[in-house]
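Hi everyone,

Forwarding the result from last night's run.
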Amino acid sequence: MVKIKSVLVSQPKPETDKSPYYDIAKKYNVKIDFRPFVKVEGIPSKDFRTQKINLADYMSVIFNSRHGVDHYFRMCDELRVPVNDNRKYFCISESIAFYLQKYVTYRKRKIFYGNGTLANLMQQVQKFPEDKYLVPLSDVHKQDIPEKLAEANIAYDIAVLYRTVSSNMSDMETLGHDIVLFFSPAGVMSLKQNFPNFNQEEENVFIGAFGPTTAETVEKLGYRLDIKAPTADNPSMPAALEKFIKAQNGK
């Protein structure tokens, strides 16, 4: 069996040393590097105008990510749309709600948040069923929020404000790691784009995927999926990674 010596995590490097990946690196004496395979780019204002959406018309906005927050206020600034003090913001989690302080004064009566679940967020939204909501999203996005709003007969529009594109990885001739972990379909597609001649069997690289759509993309593009999370036994990618390394390295 191939002994695992290095792992490439296709995400930004953790901001603190308190990461389970660092614990795994130390425990199993493996090198773990971080390199995002994708990046987020804002939609130019001239392209956004083709969506025929007037940001000033929406007094309630739903955020499911910090990217949505950043690019919503970026677009308001570029289009010179005033940030109305009466506007209400609905965030899927408390951390995103606190992140809003970067752009607005935090007022509990104007900022509502859930516990990280869509069901809980919808409880907040349904307190104001007559409002018309704006949902800032990426060009490629899940339909869960629009579907739930439609089911609840809540008026809404989607504003595509940013997109996920492949990072330029031309400085890397090969992946150079025993394991590569992916967390989005876009990350896997970036692998295909940046390393078109990559042969998983010849280079002895194991591939891990977090989430069913990421796993599906790995197999759809012709790669072998070796590590999968979340599962009943492996609720997180670090847990799945540790179990795989332990099995391969015999520890």
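The first helix runs from residue 20 to 28.

Cheers,
N.
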